[in-house]
Design brief:
The protein is an alpha/beta fold. The longest helix is centred in the first third of the chain and has 21 residues, at about 90-110. Helix 6 links the parallel strand 8 (about 165-170) and strand 9 (about 195-200). It contains 16 helices and 22 strands. It has a seven-stranded mixed sheet, with helices on both faces. A six-stranded mixed sheet has the order 9-8-7-10-11-21, sandwiched between helices. A three-stranded antiparallel sheet has the order 5-6-22. The structure holds NADPH dihydro-nicotinamide-adenine-dinucleotide phosphate. NADPH dihydro-nicotinamide-adenine-dinucleotide phosphate binds next to helix 7 and helix 8.
Length: about 475
């Protein structure tokens, strides 16, 4: 059911669509509203109507509701994690971690609602004052992908609420169940009707109607660079604000590193968590010739310890891919890589003969000696495929790291202090990690450059730049 103005409603056209368990695609998990433009119209209307009263509630009171929401997330961890694993496929421990992370981000934003909302400036005129206040942007659209069906919506909804905005939430078509559950928690936390509205259904209908609606003042979008570009163009025509979190092709550079065991362990974890379907997944290793053989051996040894299976089974460390589309995309990249002569060190094949029946399982795959201009090295595969690129030296490693259209996250594994500074300055990325994988924290700004993002960083205090307008007030007393 959609949630519009606090009421659970079916899609106006009466249509439903079903979702399936990627570990056993013949298992139907439930039916969800296949919404129309009319449903978006109603949801935006409800959000716009609720906006003045919500904005008038003092920030600390809005924060209290968010603290309560964070508590409910923690208390529902087991149930919600199970839903994530069922509809998305990731291992249960990862799903549990995702819910805990969402609670931490909600808690941070709850605190933000009590922080100063402006600045006081000295006036250049006697008897006058100047100050600024951050006001709510208004009604925002939260358009989310399927890879983090809980933390991504919370990363948009919590700051929106903290700073006095109302929301229309459109989850990915593949993961509406987590979204329905989140709406129940928001209601239980005491968020008033109409403040957050849910519309499920396809991106080309629901998403498109949302980004075109003039009553939507801002669009916080996480997803592919292709759709993000369409969102940006459409929003620009009516000067709506955007926050775009897009794809990545995140490098791990290894140079003069004394602890290759640690490097291999961190790289493999960051590359294969969520079956590689993370925007911040490490998706290429760039290693100097001097350390390549030793690193490659360790990486393969760690990859071979990954236990692929149903995410609900104890012991599973990597689940299936989320959908048949994703499964076919991965298989096609691997086929092209093999055809172009790249060497497969491990994996390189599906793990089931009949994926539509037995699950979208693909073997964790490592390619060696991948040329820097190969699609494996340049394009976001979004799957369990790790290409290794060998380079002469650190300078060439940086050039290769910067040689894609993306600029989200980058890791460096080194024991040489001077490389840390050089890497941090010269690598084109929104987030730099030294001697660990690409993991973010719940209070630190998160975002990318180049084709990886646009607009204010999410997470942490910078999110305010997206969710508020600054008003300057001059008074002659
Ligand atoms: P998509 O871009 O396909 O979809 C993202 C969302 O946009 C979905 O809700 C989708 O709906 C919706 N959408 C699709 N078409 C339109 C449209 N025309 N107008 C408005 N909305 C639309 O991405 P995926 O869901 O496939 O997610 C994977 C991508 O997300 C990867 O490229 C990944 O890198 C990126 N990502 C980036 C993150 C970051 O923080 N930088 C984090 C997580 C993922 P529907 O599901 O119905 O198609």
């Amino acid at each position: 059911m959609n949630v519009i103005g606090g009421a659970q409603v079916a899609a106006s056209g009466g249509a439903w669509y079903s979702i399936r368990n990627p570990a056993r695609p013949e298992e139907c998990l439930g039916e969800f509203a296949n919404s129309t433009r009319a449903d978006v119209d109603a949801a935006v209307g409800a959000a716009a109507a609720a906006a003045p009263a919500w904005a008038a509630i003092p920030g600390p009171q809005r924060g209290s509701l968010l603290f309560r929401f964070a508590e409910l997330l923690e208390a529902s961890k087991n149930e919600l994690a199970r839903i994530i694993t069922l509809e998305q496929g990731k291992a249960l421990a990862e799903s549990t971690g995702e819910v805990g992370r969402a609670a931490a981000e909600a808690r941070f934003m709850a605190g933000e609602a009590s922080r100063p909302a402006g600045s006081v400036f000295p006036s250049d005129k006697p008897g006058s004052t100047c100050h600024t206040v951050a006001e709510p942007l208004g009604t925002v659209a939260a358009i989310c992908p399927w890879n983090f069906p809980v933390v991504t919506p919370v990363r948009k909804i919590a700051p929106a609420l903290a700073w006095g905005n109302t929301v229309v939430f459109k989850p990915a078509s593949l993961t509406p169940w987590s979204a329905v559950y989140l709406m129940q928690l928001l209601e239980r936390a005491g968020v008033p009707p109409g403040v957050v509205n849910l519309v499920t259904g396809s991106g080309s209908i629901v998403g498109d109607a949302l980004i075109q609606d003039r009553r939507v003042h801002g669009i916080s979008f996480t997803g592919s660079t292709k759709v993000g570009t369409h969102v940006y163009e459409t929003a620009a025509r009516r000067l709506a604000r955007v926050q775009l979190e897009l794809g990545g092709k995140n490098p791990a550079v290894v140079a003069d590193c004394d602890d290759l065991d640690l490097a291999a362990r961190e790289i493999v974890a960051a590359a294969f968590l969520c079956s590689g379907q993370r925007c911040t997944a490490l998706s290429r290793v760039i290693v100097t010739d001097a350390q390549a053989d030793a690193l490659v051996e360790r990486v393969v040894s760690h990859v071979n310890r990954i236990a692929v299976g149903d995410g609900l089974e104890p012991g599973t460390t990597m689940g299936p891919l989320v959908s048949e589309t994703q499964f076919r995309t991965v298989a096609e990249y691997v086929r092209q890589g093999v055809a172009s002569g790249c060497g497969v060190l491990t994996g390189g094949h599906p793990l089931t003969d009949n994926p539509q029946r037995d699950g979208y399982y693909y073997a964790p795959t490592v390619f060696d000696r991948v040329p820097a201009d190969s699609p494996l090295a340049l394009e976001e595969i979004f799957g369990p495929v790790l290409p290794i690129l060998r380079v002469r030296d650190f300078d060439q490693a940086i050039a290769v790291a910067n040689g894609t259209r993306y600029g989200l996250a980058a890791s460096l594994f080194t024991s040489r202090a001077s490389f840390i500074d050089e890497f941090s300055r010269r690598v084109e990325a929104g987030m730099i990690h030294v001697n660990h994988g690409t993991a973010s924290q719940p209070h630190v700004p998160f975002g990318g450059v180049k084709d990886s993002g646009q607009g204010a960083c999410s997470i942490g205090p910078t999110a305010r730049e997206f969710f508020t307008n600054v008003k300057a007030i001059y008074v002659k007393w």
